[in-house]
Structures are given as C-alpha cells and as structure tokens.
Amino acid sequence: MHRPVKAAAFALVILALAAVPALRPPAFYESFLFLVYLWVALATSWAILSGFSGYFSFGHGAFYGAGVYTTATLASRFDVPVAWTWLAAGVAAAILGLVVGAVVFRVRRLRGELFALLTLAVTFVVATVVLNTRIDGGPGVFLAGVDAPRIYGSASGSLYVFALAIAAATLAVAWLVQYSRLGRGLFAISDDEDVAETMGVPTYRFKLAALGVSCFLAGVAGGIHAVFVGYVTVAETFSLTVPLFVVLMSVLGGARHWLGPCLGAAFIVALNYAFVGGDWAVVGRAIIGATLILVILFLPHGLVGTAVSAWRRAHPAKAAPAAGTASMPAPARSEAARQPVMLRCENVHLSFRGVRALAGVTMEVQGGEILGLVGPNGSGKSTLVNVISGYYRPQAGRVLLGDDDLLTKGGHRIASLGVARTYQIPRPFSRLTVAENVALAAMFGAARLDRISAWHESGRWLAFVGLAERHAALPSQLNLHQRKFLELARALAARPRLILLDEVLSGLTPSETAHALELIRSIRAGGATIVFIEHNMRAVLEISDRLVVLNHGEVIAEGEPRAVIREPEVVTAYLGSAHA
Amino acid sequence: MPSATLLGQSLLSGVFIGALYGLLGLGLSLSWGYLRLINLAHFALAFLAAYLTYQLVDVGDWHPVAALAAIVPAFFVLGVAMQVFVHRFAIGEFASLLVTFGVTVIIESLIQWIWTADFRRLQLDHGALSWRLGPLFIPIVEAAMLLVTLALTCGTWAMLRFTYIGKAMRASAEDPDMAAAFGVDHRRLALLLSGLAAAFAGVAGAFIALIYTLFPAQIFTWVGVIFAVVILGGLGNPLGALIAGLVVGVSESLTMALTEPAWAPLVSFSLLIFVLVLRPDRI
Amino acid sequence: MLDARALDVAYGDAPALWGVSLTIAAGELVAVVGPNGAGKTTLVNAIARLMPIRSGSLRLAGEDITSIGAKDLCRRGVAIIPEGRRLFTGMTVEENLELGCYRGKARQSRAQNLERVYGMFPVLRQRRRQTAGTLSGGQQQMVAIGRAIMACPQLLLIDEPSLGLAPAIVDQVFTVIRDIHASGVAILLIEQNVAQALAIANRAYVLEGGRIVSHGAPADLLRQKHVREAYLGEDAETSSL
Fold it and tell me: Residues 6 or more apart from A284 whose CB is under 8 A from it?
C-alpha cells in the first residue's frame, strides 16, 4: 500500500471510532474504549523515545503526572478552559522532559539501566514536590464542575472523542517519526550510538527531541485523564502503574514499531477488564506478569516485531534500491589531483589513566593521497583514528581539517564536514538491513540526502562493493568479508572527503584482499583522500603513496613507503632488537 | 525547633529504618554487582517471607526465631532455583529487570490470593517491648534487626574479602574468562550468591513482619529508595549498602522531624540523581 | 606434553587459524612469532580453552582436551599470562596472586609460592595491599606473571609479555621468563618482538595469516627470509598480490 492510501485508511478507522458514542453504547463500553485510547497514547508516546532509541524510561509516570496536575490545577483553581489546560499540560510535561533530558543525556556513556533508574527517581522527586506544595498538598485535587468541551450530548462521549484524538495523534506522530530522518537516527542510536554519532547523527539533539515529543503527548493524555477521573491524588498518579504498564505494553507489542505499543495496550487493557471483580482481578495480574516473562524470553521483539521479521523473510525481494552501475560513481567533490594538506594533526597528546596512548603526534594527510598508517600493536593507530573521528578528546594538540579544528566539534559535525571511517571489527547497525545501513550514512554524512535519494544512493554503493544482491539481508546474515565491504559502502555513501580505513583487510583471504585493494584504488580515483591503517604490510606497500609509522604513540618515520620500512628504527620497532 | 529528645528519637528511628534499607539492599547489591541481575523480585521475595512469618507465628503459633530458621534455608533453595532459570534462558542485565518485574507481579498476586488485600499485623507480646535509655525508647525487635543486619553485612564483607570463594566471586565479576582460566567455576558461585541473596530477603521479610503492618501493594513501597541505597553504596559493596542505608534512613527521619514528614523521599532521590549524574562510573 | 593437530579456529564465521599444528615437549620453551593479526592470540586462547576449536585435536599429556572448559584446564597444570595482562583490577596485588592458586594442589603451597613471587619482584611485596589497577604497566605485568606462577603450572602460556612496556622492563620480563623455564616449566611464548623471543626459545614457529609458515631452530629462522617478509612485507612477489 502506498502512504496516502494507508493514511486514508487510518483516518477512516479513526472517524468510525469517533462515531461510536452516537450509537449510545452502554457506559461500560465507552469507558473501556476510553482506557484503551489512554493507554495507546501513553504506550505509543513512550515508544517514540524509549522504543525507537532503546533508552528505556521508567519515568513516564512523571511526565503523565505533570500533565494530570497541570490540568487539575489550572482547571479547578484558575478556571482556565479545559482545552487550554490540555495544551498547557503537554507543554509542562515537555519542559520537564527537556530539563531532565538536557542534564541526563550529557552524562557520557550513559547506560540503559542508569537512564531507567534516573527517570524513575525523577518520578519520585516530582511526586514529592507535588505532594508537599500547594499543587496538591496532600488530600488530592477535585475537578469539581470541570467538563470537557461538548462534542456529543454527554460529557463522557465528548471525553471519549478527545481520548481517541490524542491516541490517533500519538499514533500518527509515531508513524511519521518512524519513517523520518529523526526516526532513522533513533534506530541507529538504539543499535550503536557511537557509530551513529560518527556517521553524522546528532545523537544528543535527537534524543532530546524524541523525549520532548514523547513527554508532550504523555502530558496531554494525562490532562485528559484528569478530567475523566475527576479526582486526582499523588499516590494514584505517580504510582508505578504507568511506567510499568507502558513498558509492558510496548515490549509485548513490539517497541520498535509505531503499531506495536498500540496492540500491546489494547491487549493488556482487555486482559485487565476480562478479570474485573474480586479474586479474578488477582488472576488477571498474575497472567499479566506471566505474559511479560514469556514475551521477554520467547518474543524479545514483541508481536509486531516478530511479525515484521517473519513477513520480511517470506517476502525477501521487497523494493530493491536501484542497482546503478558497478563502476565507481562520480567523485564526491572533484578535487584536482593532490592538494597541499587536507588533514593536519599537531602535537596530539592522549593518555588513559596515566597510560600514554598518543605522545605528541604530528602528521599531515595530503589531499588525494593514500596514506599508509602502520606500527606495531598498541602503537596508537586506532586511537588516532578515534581522535580524528571525534570519539576521543585528546588532552592537548589540534586536528585541522582544512581550516576547521575538529577537536572543537562533536562527532556528527566532523562527519558532516566530510570525514568517514570504517571499523576494524565491523559495527553495522544490527537491526537495520544492509541497504538501510548504507542509506543511513547517505542521510547523515556529508551527503545529507533525503530519505528517498539516500535509498537510491545506497543501491549504487552496494553495487560498487558487490553487495547489491544482499540489500535486504540483516548484517548478521552476512559473512565477515561481506560485513567489511558493508562498512566500506557505508563510509562511501556519506560522500566523504577523507576516509579512514581501519584494517579493512584483516581476516580476508588473499583473493578477497586483492578485490578490496582494487576498490580502494578506485575510491581514490574518485577523488577521496584515504588513510589506510593496516597490518598486512605487503598490501600497505603496494597501495600507499606515503607511509607514517607510529610506535609508542609517536611518529617514528614517514615518507616513501619502501624507504621508510628500511629505516633501522622501523625495523627495530617491528622486529625488536636482541639486547637481552 | 523540635526538642532534643524528639531529635534523638527520630535519629534512632532513622538508624533502624536505615538498617532495614541496608538489609534489603544487601541481597540486591550482591546480585546486581556479581551476577549482573537487577532483581526486582527481591522485594517480592522479602514480602513473601514476611507473610510466611506472619502465617507461622500468628496462625501456627511458632516462635519468630523458629520461623526464621525455617524460612532462611527454604529461601536459599528458592534463590538457587531462580539462578538456574536465569542461566537456562541466558537472561541479560536489562531483560532481568523486566523478567523479575513479571515474577514480582506474580508473587504479589499469589500473596493477595492467599492472604487477601487486607491489612495483616502480627500480635506479639514482646513486639511492643522496648528498653528505656535515658529519655529514649529502644524497641527490641528493631534493635535485633540492626544487630542482625550488622552481622550479615560484615559477614558478607568478610567472606568477599578474606575467603577464596569470595575472592573468586569478585574476580569472576570482573573478568569471567580469566577467572575461569585459574579454575573458578562461575556457575556454581552464581548459584551460591543467588541463594544467599534470597536468604537475605527471607531474613529481611521476617523482620518486616515483626515490625510493620502487611498488605500486598507494600511490595513497591521501598523499591525506589532501596535502589538509591544500592547505587549510592556501590554495586556489590555490602558495607557501602549499609552505610548508604543508614545515611538515607537518618536523613529521612531528620527531614521528617524538621519539616513535613512527606518531604522525606526527596532526600534519597535527590542524592541518587546527584550521584548518577556526577559519578556515573561508580556503577 | 602439548600436541595440537590441524587446529581450525574461527570467530563466528571468520576463520582465524587454518590447520595449525604445534607441539611442546615437557620443559621446552617454544616461541610463536608473527606479525600483528596473524592469529597468535587466537592460538593461545584456543589452547587455553577460552575459544572453541572448530576442528582438529588438542592433547595435553596424552589426554584429549579439545572440548573441555577453561576451568578444567587449570587443574591439569596449565596457566596463562594473557595479552594485556587482564588483572582483576579492582582487587589488591596479593588477592590477584592468591587467585592464581585458587585451584587444587596449588592452594597448599600458597605461602611458599607467594615468597617466590615476592622474591622475584620485591616491588610487589611493598605494594601487596595496593589495588592492581593503580600499578604501572610494568608492575601489572609482574603481577600477571606472579599470578601464573602461583598456579604451579607445568605448562605456561605467555601472550605478548612485552606489549606496551618500556625496553628496560621488557628485559627484566624476559629474564624472569628464562628463570621460570630453567625451573622446568614448559612455555609457549607468543611475542612480536622476534629477536628477543628467538634469543631464549628452544624452538620457534612463524605464524602468518592464520597459518604456520615456517618452524625450526631459532637461529635458522632468524637467517630465513620468511621472518623479515612476514613482518615487513619485503619480497619479490609483492606485485603479484
């Protein structure tokens, strides 16, 4: 189905559901559906950050609660019209979320469990503040005489429509995000945040944006719920029910798809309703607990996730990106032969806990050349690549790309300036297909294409490295040789000026190595500059224009390759001297 | 400004609640630090033990110490069984949080099924007993809990510090492959640790039954604060958990005495947030 | 003592060793040299049973150990000084050493072995209560060696002991390795510092691209052009690649 068709179908379903109160169903059905919509909105809004980016928040209750109390306070105490309080509820929750995110996401190497606990702690703090200030003060807040704007004759029917509206809006937003640039970036963050940043995804801003949107929607849902219940208390609002239910619903349905949390929410609310009353409620809760365990153990991707991968397996030949020609595509920027200096490292120092990794590295990369960067194990080659690509921040020195000092820029800015890299051990985004992996690089690197162009671009580069056939595969289905070439395609799709190749040849057979060297030559012919880190000295000698030798974090030699490797100091660095 | 006696008494009650935090945190800290399991079910186990204690003492007319003696080995076995399950399904750190939440919900339902949602309170003759120390009252059960907590915490610390098994546990948590290369059997140590953690939950539960009124939803009361205590104390650090428990407990009671009682949770969670944001490398 | 035949080892689907055969006699010091990425560490890890062996057989003193776990190998008298030392960095120096004698008979000779290690490296005695992670690289290497000695091994696997160390420390480390060998322990020494490794070895193998390309007496290997080629890629066939 095409997008407009899908959107129309979606709108039809929503309209049909909006007509339900006109049929005057028993109150039971109306409130049941109201709760379904509420939880669809809460679970789906949670998934926009947590499901897509993998940062599981246990603080959704805080943002929902901020919405609940904003509406309760404004409507009951200040007589603000209810519709306006809902908007305010969303804004208040979003502000709370952005403040929390702005602090929390600055914590370097924030682990998932820590994020979960931090957001949970935020819930308790917010609850305590609300409980002890005039916002609540202890007894709870009555929303006496507060009514939703009438759409149907009955108040409940009108609230029903608003709950449906927020659920529909949340689903639509989740859908849009999933297929947007933001969504692609979030999925990449979820698989490998460091690689995503290095490929140009502004990870900090994206996480913050997703959190803001997620909190806004949760806040509005909270505001609507406040009117529905009519009496709000801190204990109910900030209980663990909200965070736990949204996690459960999303995990059950599949948190990485806009539709997943929606199915999970419907299922759980229905299950809760099926066991109302007395002892059966207890059984219902036990079943929910058991369901959670079984889903985590046996369907870790949730219902929708499992269905999608099954469907993909059954229909492998889904829309391939245009293969293009297998020859080297036109150069990124037509750079005339050799330029004087493309990259300059000046006196770069980096130590880890007192161990010197780089001890004042000064070197240049000339435009259009292939520079071989070699040295024994632990000499600092990979560390230098990590410095240039922005992963490590050295204690001293400068790294200049043209006139830009890279050390003052984040990893994603460096990528957009035209630096791309490969990893010694391939690090593809494991839950994106081969073509999606490459398209992502084209969307966020120096190329900055839109989604559709990036998709076509991925076809060209996959053809270039010989992976066109495998475009729909997941990286785990590739062998090592193919994964290495996927790394290469990903780096190229970003249209970089400078490519850092970190041991692309290791683990390849001689014929695969020969193929890889051919590709590297044609990349250079296309105009890019290459820094080639490699242990296979034969390959280095064959392909490099110049050689830089590192040892103990220092440059010990540089120049014409064959001359350099005859220098005594280089021979000693490699072979050692027998002075024992 | 409250009187010195009131302050003293609230300091004392802070120490006692802090000891309970430390006791509950001890098992959680062990399994998180050494097994990489975030065991939410630890709280459910503690309350299961509390209800069993209630049953044995109140209905079965056992002596509390006899109940404790029955519960501890039973919970050790339960802990071992849980670890067998975790190992069988290769449950990772994050998944463990969700799976053990599922277990918690099931145990909560079980408790509600058997004991209903009504409040349950042990009627003990010596429950209300307390010593008088100058102007202060020292409740005996709480004092016993403090002593037991001290003993278990120091015992665990000494085991980790001075015995081969304890050193092997620490080594295994750092680098399982290298520990294995020197002959450490990680699986068996994990069974032992998990059993110990569950047994500690059993001890904590018995004291909870003696001190507090029980109801099923209470399982979740202390989840937040104990996580704060465990993280503040450092994962896998028994002394740290106890010290953090006491600090949080005392500062909570002082907050209660000096301001509104309901401000207390702010203390532990603000501490937690500060530690997580400023020193995330601590765990 | 150790007899490896036609070992194939792979990381997932990426082969790292192809048909590697190698023997070590009791009390022998065998060096394996080769450039980075040749598969040397993989070979040690496979023998130490830290990596699965895809095919081939591994025998220790006549007993098949191809598929036993690392923890059972220790009991059979094999200890390892791993690449990058891999100390238990949160534990003290002495605790690290004690971990070395965790298994079996070694525990009984704890005091005696501890004295031996402190005799070898007096600086460790001063720092016995210090956390291992706070030591310098050279001292950490001493602890790693000491930890292996504590296990009373008959076969010691040593992986890149000179990595990242200053030359003076490297000399000291090699002296100690020679002493351990002199006390009758068989040693498999993996080293990229060819000259130094070959100077103390009884026999040596050259590993390149996951295959043994040459083996023999150290003096012969030094003379062969294989070694220089493997490391520096200088050979006539370069253009044929």
Answer: A271, A272, A274, A275, A276
Q: Which residues on A lie below 8 Å from C137 (Cβ)?
A: 355
Q: Which of A509, A377, A176, A107 is nearest to B283 (CA)?
A: A107
What phi, psi does C59 have (nearest 5°)? -125, 140
How far C44 CA sits from the closest chain B CA (Å)? 12
Closest by CA to A534, choosing from A354, A395, A382, is A382
Residue A246 structure tokens: 């949204």
ipTM of predicted assembly, 2 dp = 0.88
Of the candidates A121, A127, A293, the beta carbon closest to that of B99 is on A293
Q: Which of B113, B223, B228 sits opposite A279 (nearest CB)?
A: B113
Residue with tokens 């507090």: B212
The two tokens of residue A124 are 């308790």
- Per CB distance under 8 Å, which residues of A are interface residues toward B? 56, 103-104, 107-114, 116-118, 120-122, 124-125, 127-129, 131-132, 138, 239-240, 244, 247-248, 251, 279, 282-283, 285-286, 288-293, 296-297, 300
**By the CB < 8 Å criterion, does C112 face chain A?**
no
pTM of whole model > 0.90?
no
Is any Cβ of chain C less than 8 angstroms from the Cβ of B185?
Answer: yes
Q: Which chains touch B (3 or more CB pairs under 8 A)?
A: A, C
What token pair was written down for C229? 């080629």
pLDDT, tens digit only, all 283 positions of chain B: 678 888 888 899 999 999 999 999 999 999 999 999 989 899 999 999 999 999 999 888 888 899 999 999 999 999 999 999 999 988 888 788 889 988 998 999 899 889 888 888 887 765 567 777 778 888 888 999 999 999 999 999 999 999 999 999 999 999 999 999 999 999 999 999 999 999 999 999 999 999 998 988 888 888 888 988 998 888 899 999 999 999 999 988 988 888 877 777 788 788 877 877 776 665 5
